[in-house]
Design a protein that fits this description.
The protein has about 100 residues and is of the alpha+beta class. It has one domain. Helices cover about 30% and strands about 25% of the residues. The strands form two sheets. A three-stranded antiparallel β-sheet has the order 2-3-4, covered by helices on one side. Strands 1-5 form a two-stranded antiparallel sheet.
Amino acid sequence: MEIGTRRKVNLSVPSKGLLTEAYPLKNNFFLNLKFKNGVPAQVRGLYDVVEPYFQDHLDNDREPSPNVIDGAKACAVASAAWASSESGAVEKVFSDF
């Protein structure tokens, strides 16, 4: 899978969550993308938010869906999208998980 070159990238104002107060950086953001072929996409970096569904799985020692591999794949797509926005070129998505 490849991410096509971007036409437009908007980074919303990042915010600092309250879950991990000791972490000093802003750790929640939305990255809005629009590719040359017109396809819109949104990357969400919500690193200081625990959804109730996920918390329930943590509390009861169950594997959630999406799982850690799904999360890694999402991060790989976000990384390629970010690299494409920087380079203006098509970037290959690492997907060997």
